[in-house]
Specification:
Blueprint (H helix, E strand, L loop, with lengths): L7 H23 L10 E6 L2 E11 L2 E9 L9 H4 E5 L2 E3 L3 E4 L6 E8 L8 E6 L6 E6 L2
Antiparallel strand pairs: 1-2, 2-3, 3-7, 4-5, 4-8, 6-7, 8-9
Protein name: DUF4352 domain-containing protein
């Protein structure tokens, strides 16, 4: 007859191993999908302001862009959510949300989000007004 004894040390080792495995799984799920296409970055000069727009997501959940504004001469005091307009296949999307640095200074960086779905294959135009010149970037949704 085989007698199996369970010690607290053995249980603790099993729990620690299970937590480690769950941690690895959670980490791998939180990483960007390596099969996601590179949507691209558009850099546009608006007078003395360099505007860099990177599409992070264009899908059924909406559109997300990383925005970077750089200058040495102009005060960057515009309201980016109010100054941004997204057009998807010719239809204007409402409700931009800015998550980033507030107005002022010579460098601003943050994320601009639109909840309007972007269908696969759609053309998405992001326009920012209120700078020395208006800027537009264009992407095709994967």
């Amino acid at each position: 007859m085989v007698h199996i004894t369970t010690s607290w040390r053995g249980v603790a080792v099993l729990v620690a191993a299970a937590l480690a495995i769950l941690g690895v799984i959670a980490w791998s799920l939180s990483r960007p999908d390596e099969n996601t296409p590179d949507l691209g970055t558009r850099t546009v000069q608006a007078g003395d302001v360099e505007v860099t727009m990177t599409a992070l997501a264009l899908n059924g959940s909406g559109a997300v862009f990383k925005i970077v504004l750089d200058t040495h001469t102009v005060e960057l005091d515009l309201d980016l959510a109010a100054s941004a307009q997204l057009t998807v296949n010719g239809a204007v999307a409402d409700g931009a949300v800015w998550e980033g640095q507030g107005p002022g200074g010579h460098h601003r960086e943050g994320t601009l989000r639109f909840a309007t779905p972007v269908p696969a294959g759609a053309t998405a135009d992001l326009r920012v007004i209120g700078l020395p010149q208006d800027v537009t970037g264009t992407w095709s949704a994967p």
